[in-house]
């Protein structure tokens, strides 16, 4: 896949393809939804088995689509089941909860780099550019109210106290391991691949759907819809300015305030 195309150009002409092939990405979305529901209901072995099955199917699907527009999409989608597989199988019990984010993000970041290389994506294709500073700052600041809104939905327990000596490291972990890593995967890699597959409108909606269903394990229907709306907003910003900088900072601030600030203040 070449990278000389505009980052969010229209996708290929798909008018002649069969309905099954056109709906296949959504079929994988339904499978991921089922796997997440099983996991959220604490049917962990069944959810894990389904995630492993989806991962294998996506790898095979990507191989079958080699050289075709949807190859990159199926390659990038492997990161969705892999995210849950990592969180469920890594031996994290002996580590403090905060370190779970750091430990699981390392293999996922490596996998994202490998997927990007296989797709032929460069830094600019993934939104790793500065963008317009004024817009990026405004988008970054949106993380403050978003964090408050999600706190009011989930009401999580604080991951650390407000003492700066104990706060800066958890904040840094959340910024890098949730903010940067998830924006790179979803608004960078998956949305770029989905744009090549079927155009920017499909990419925005599909990426937001996949991102939202991976929050089903929070066991809040309202939060899934909230996350879907946030994903649409973040994706729209990236499509307009081609940079994930602002949404990375906004995502990081959302999680920092959600887990570290608001639980200690409210």
Shape: globular
Q: Can you summarize the main beta sheet?
A: none
Give the ordered list of helices and strands. HHHHHHHHHHH
Radius of gyration (CA) equals 18 Å
Characteristic key phrases:
single chain, 266 residues, mainly alpha, 11 helices, 0% strand, disordered N terminus
Give structural notes.
Helix 4 (79-89) packs antiparallel against helix 5, helix 6 (133-141) packs parallel to helix 11 and helix 9 (200-213) runs antiparallel to helix 10. The protein is mainly alpha-helical. It has one domain (19-265). The chain is globular. The chain is 74% helix and 0% strand. The N and C termini lie far apart (49 Å).
How is this fold's topology laid out?
Elements: H1 19-40, H2 44-64, H3 71-77, H4 79-89, H5 97-119, H6 133-141, H7 143-154, H8 164-198, H9 200-213, H10 221-241, H11 245-265
Helix pairs in contact: 1-2, 1-9, 2-3, 2-4, 3-5, 3-8, 4-5, 5-8, 6-11, 7-10, 7-11, 8-9, 8-11, 9-10
Produce a short descriptive summary.
This protein is an all-alpha fold and 266 residues long. The chain contains eleven helices and no strands.
């Amino acid at each position: 896949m070449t990278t000389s195309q505009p980052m969010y150009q229209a996708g290929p002409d798909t008018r002649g393809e069969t309905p099954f092939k056109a709906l296949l990405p959504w079929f994988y979305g339904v499978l991921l939804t089922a796997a997440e529901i099983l996991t959220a209901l604490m049917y962990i072995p069944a959810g894990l088995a389904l995630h492993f099955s989806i991962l294998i199917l996506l790898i095979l699907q990507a191989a079958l689509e080699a050289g075709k527009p949807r190859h990159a999409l199926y390659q990038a989608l492997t990161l969705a089941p892999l995210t849950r597989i990592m969180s469920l199988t890594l031996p994290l019990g002996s580590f403090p909860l905060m370190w779970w984010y750091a430990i699981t993000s390392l293999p996922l970041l490596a996998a994202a780099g490998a997927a990007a290389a296989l797709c032929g994506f460069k830094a600019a294709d993934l939104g790793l550019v500065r963008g317009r500073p004024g817009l990026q700052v405004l988008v970054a600041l949106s993380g403050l109210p978003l964090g408050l809104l999600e706190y009011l939905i989930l009401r999580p327990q604080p991951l650390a106290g407000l003492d700066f000596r104990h706060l800066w490291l958890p904040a840094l972990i959340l910024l890098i391991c949730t903010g940067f890593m998830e924006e790179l995967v979803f608004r960078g890699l998956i949305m770029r691949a989905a744009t090549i597959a079927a155009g920017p409108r499909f990419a925005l909606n599909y990426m937001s759907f996949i991102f939202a269903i991976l929050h089903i394990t929070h066991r809040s229907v309202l939060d899934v819809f909230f996350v879907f709306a946030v994903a649409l907003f973040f994706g729209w910003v990236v499509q307009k300015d081609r940079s994930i900088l602002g949404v990375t900072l906004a995502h990081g601030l959302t999680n920092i305030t959600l887990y570290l600030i608001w639980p200690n203040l409210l």
